[in-house]
Write a structure and sequence with these properties.
This protein is of the alpha/beta class and about 250 residues long. The radius of gyration is 17 Å and the shape is globular. The strands form 2 sheets. It has an 8-stranded mixed beta sheet, sandwiched between helices. Strands 7-8 form a two-stranded antiparallel ribbon. Helix 3 crosses helix 4. The protein has 9 helices and 10 strands.
Amino acid sequence: MTADADAPNFLFLENGRRIAYHKIEGKGPTVIFFGGFMSDMEGSKALALEEHCRLRGQAYIRFDYSGHGSSSGEFRDGTIGAWKEDALAVVERLTEGPVLIIGSSMGGWTGLLVGLEVKDRLAAFIGIAPAPDFTRELMWDKYSPEIQAKLKQDGYYLEPSEYSDAPYVISYRLIEEGDNHLLLGGPIELECPVRLLHGMKDEDVPFRWSQRISDALTTEDVVITYVKNGDHRLSSDRDLERLCATLDSLLEG
């Protein structure tokens, strides 16, 4: 395959952002992968799902939020609302008919937010260690008074990452704006089938988050799969096989 064949396409938004994506044509519903915080569409889950959908003849899209991967913008300028806008534009402008959203970590939050916007088209939702409300409950509420003060004073905080040599640049605006999109305090009014996959050794998003999401969802068709020795990423070969089998069960059910 040539470098040109590997190059992404771009969706140009009215706000000036340029969203990189890869799309394969096929039968519906279109499967769309929503990546995680500071992740990109070249990750193992995004690529495994693409290959699986290609073999099925299933339409599939993977994309990068602004400030991520090949899309325009700086990560430090991003917010949950902006990333939701990016993802919603992908759904509205690159697909027709039913969609099946798969969201990993932060993508579980943005995926639910977008799902609520297009609920009449949402065939099903799969969350992988889904992390709604993480900016408040898993960041701000857990930060020390010193870190909170630095965020308020400087506008950002460099948070060490176990997934990268470079720290995450956490902005105070990310925390504040995230409060506009909290989901766990009320009902999540989706009626489609929902499948949640969560590792019980997840050190980033506690596995109880999936139960909280299930409790908030109005649909009764929710199945949670806990992976006893699974970590946050759930990207081992066995995890990827489980993810693809979960997708198959929804597409064929």
